[in-house]
Amino acid sequence: MPAEQTHITDVVLATAGYDHTIRFWEALSGACLRTIQVPDSVNQLAISPDKRILAAAGNPLIRMYDVQSTNSNPVTTFEGHTKNVTSIAFQSAGRWFVTASEDGTIKIFDVRTPGIQRDYTPEGKSPINCVIIHPNQGELISCDNNGSIRVWDLGENSCTHELLPDEDTPVRSVTMASDGSLLVAANNKGNYYAWKTKTSGDMTDFEPLTRVNAHSKYITKCVLSPDNKLLATCSADHTVKIWDASKQRFTLEKTLTGHQRWVWDCAFSADSAYLVTGSSDHTSRLWDIAAGETIRHYNGHQKAVVAVALHDVSVI
Question: Beta partners for 140?
Fold first, then answer.
């Protein structure tokens, strides 16, 4: 991302924290470009594929902000959840988005119209920590405090798979390879689990690959890189670890140290060479992964930074 040919306006970098602010940053200089005051804490951020909208998952509302304008008011607000919204993701064409919440539900919203389009409530109504959209855009994958990972088929409008790698251990985060070939889930024991996916006809099967004891404390987030070669795990142990996910090796490549408290979130650059992280130490950092070093600090939040979002893909 920090390559000279990337024009700064092509990069949208945003962070949010417990100080009730969202901040936009100039990625290369570390300068804060804009600060938005929000009424409650933001748990996760997502940038629309066309870079026009920043979605902020709050408690219990979802607010949409215009990335290009200086207006600090949301352009749209979506309601329907009754507790903290923990996760949000845009469909690849940006027409709809999915959310998950501590209220135990997963909801789909149309970007252009208010109201809930789909509503899923897993058995047990356990708080849901993360939901992602399968690269095929036809399935969702969620994880919850009961330790379940569920696959939801949007065509069938139902749950088609349930994986339970470590019962009663909350699964904090799920991530999938961009080609749909690999699923990784991370839990509160510091373990992550990987499955190889196989598609036969319309059905997807999950073949267990490995369990890795990655951290001594909670894993708060796991993310596969856009090129599917790396896995990043953020932890309560103050570190981020980079794992070799190519050819399903899962060997430790780098440990990124420097944050002084829990690391809550991370996002890869489009070329998979850089990582942005957010921490309870009030800062975000930009890391050069190959060097294993911080190359920018983003300072300004007054409390924990729990959400980061980066979009540096060229949009034509």
Answer: 133, 152
Residue 292 burial by Cβ neighbours in a 10 Å radius (0-12, 13-18, 19+): middle
Instruction: Compute the mean pLDDT over every residue in the chain, rounded to the nearest whole number.
Output: 94
Check residue 202 and give its pLDDT: 66
The model's pLDDT over 152-176, given as tens digits with 9 standing for 90+, comes to 999 999 999 999 999 899 999 999 9
Q: Are 184 and 171 in contact (CB under 8 A)?
A: no
Which is nearest to 24 in space by CA: 69, 88, 77?
69
pTM of the model: 0.95
Return the closest-CA partner of residue 12 out of 315, 316, 310, 313. 310
Closest CA to 116 of 128, 108, 124: 108
Q: What pLDDT does 1 receive?
A: 55
Question: Of 230, 267, 223, which is closest to residue 245 (Cα–Cα)?
Answer: 230
Name the one residue in this structure whose structure tokens are 């092509």: 10
The token pair at 52 is: 């026009």
State percent of the chain over pLDDT 90.
Answer: 89
Q: Which residues of 151-168 are buried (b: 16+ CB within 10 A; e: fewer)?
A: bbbbeeeebebebebeee
The Cα 47–Cα 54 span in angstroms is 5
